Amino acid sequence: MLAISQLTKDDVIIVHQLAKTIWPEAFKDILKPDQIAYMLDWMYDVNTLTEQAQTGHLFYMITLDGIPKGFIGLEPNFPDVGTLRIHKLYVKESDHGKGLGKALLEKALEIGRELDVATINLNVNRFNKAVDFYTSQGFKIIKEETINIGKGYYMEDFVMVKEV
Questions:
Q1: Who contacts 36 (Cβ-Cβ below 8 Å, separation ≥6)?
Q2: Average pLDDT in the 132-153 region?
Q3: What's the pTM?
């Protein structure tokens, strides 16, 4: 059985643990291992996730038969009022194709409607196969960004948007 539950600041360790499992597999063909490690430390540190949860970020975990399989992280009104930002959406590679990512996106749309936002936006690595997934779910590429994240690393992203 598929279930999605909201995580509290005390539960963000689950996001941290899932990211440590999912990220190396998700980015193995796109990023070098040292950049993956750097980004995991930067974005998925438990203290960082806790601070985000305390300042309005919303985290949800998806489980299949009670086993954690992925997560989504959302930020209302980012970058502008009336938008919902998907900062994180990951499902274990072994569970791709089972509708889990789509279920998490549906949760984001549900929250977007509850918050009365006009659009949902996200950044996705330009070389990530997830671009095709987001496109199939109605997201449109509106621009490219190259973001310097320090230590000589860059995020080469598409910015994608979907109307709620």
A1: 23, 24, 27, 28
A2: 97
A3: 0.96
